[in-house]
Amino acid sequence: xxxxxxxxxxxxxxxxxxxxxxxxxxxxxxxxxxxxxxxxxxxxxxxxxxxxxxxxxxxxxxxxxxxxxxxxxxxxxxxxxxxxxxxxxxxxxxxxxxxxxxxxxxxxxxxxxxxxxxxxxxxxxxxxxxxxxxxxxxxxxxxxxxxxxxxxxxxxxxxxxxxxxxxxxxxxxxxxxxxxxxxxxxxxxxxxxxxxxxxxxxxxxxxxxxxxxxxxxxxxxxxxxxxxxxxxxxxxxxxxxxxxxxxxxxxxxxxxxxxxxxxxxxxxxxxxxxxxxxxxxxxxxxxxxxxxxxxxxxxxxxxxxxxxxxxxxxxxxxxxxxxxxxxxxxxxxxxxxxxxxxxxxxxxxxxxxxxxxxxxxxxxxxxxxxxxxxxxxxxxxxxxxxxxxxxxxxxxxxxxxxxxxxxxxxxxxxxxxx
Length: 418
Hints:
Layout: E1 7-8, H1 17-24, H2 60-69, E2 74-83, H3 110-114, E3 120-129, E4 133-139, E5 144-150, E6 153-158, E7 163-168, H4 193-203, E8 208-218, E9 221-230, E10 237-245, E11 251-258, E12 266-274, E13 292-295, H5 297-304, H6 317-322, E14 326-329, E15 336-339, H7 363-371, E16 372-377, E17 380-386, E18 391-395, E19 400-403, H8 407-417
Parallel strand pairs: 7-13
Antiparallel strand pairs: 1-8, 2-3, 2-12, 3-4, 4-5, 5-6, 6-7, 8-9, 9-10, 10-11, 11-12, 14-15, 15-19, 16-17, 17-18, 18-19
Helix pairs in contact: 1-2
């Protein structure tokens, strides 16, 4: 059966490539789903149908153009999200992002609930009707969490605790398109295959190889596989595969595999999808009788807003530098975020915090020692904390270096900045 041979597409990101990138932002339907942490995240056969379909050959640049021209605004479906960042477990059995009720509305607040997507496997039901209406439901064995965006209104509801979170974006209501989408809590537009693919393509440039690598069946639909690989050797990202609907040009699946190999670190894909207009009732929400309602208010919007000062978007260099001493070193896949410290770094774990016990009784310092590696350089010494994708260095002076880069890249950055 004929297959699409890998076709180099890096040339499509030069010259007119910047215009293509601007157009690419249009194809992602902003379905309201949770963020995958840091994400900062090979196409596994979990959703494969009857094998690789026989499709006409297409170059990487033509497939990207097809995505950019896609005008899909309405869809509904089921999404499976699997995240394996290799995060350590905290003492007491909680995950590194475990449980807890944040200050954003308790169990119904978007932040506390959506962080659960940072690990494990979850099933979501999603729906969208243009930029003003989205809904996502996180399905659990005994409960369901729903996040509904309709105009300038955002509702979160946790059926387990019968608690609702309500937030109204500032502006002139549902018709003020300047404000409503931007005031959504982070995570509302960050973890569908469309949104993740858009972020990956925006990062593509002379540091990236983009090719077409065969075809696949995803959610019963024919799709091309777009393969994205960093050219920078210090990146911890091995590859990103995006399954693109052959007819609609919509990304159906996003899979990020670390350079170290093994299972995907982030795997997000539709198991079923329908491009018909969802019923209007899908985006209506009224708190059930007896539900506790927590009002997020206008002030809460600033706390959740996924932008830096002056409205700078995430990844924007100037905006990052303005955020409380945060600075970004390097470019592309090996960018490193750094926050200058004042004083000492993390406790060493030596002294009164140390215990002979092997468990949580050893205290937080002993726990940090157990998961971090001590490193040295001309900058001094520090601890490196590693996941399968993101690594962080905290120096003895308290300065933080973090990125999807290997340990040596962090040490080199610290040495250069000393």
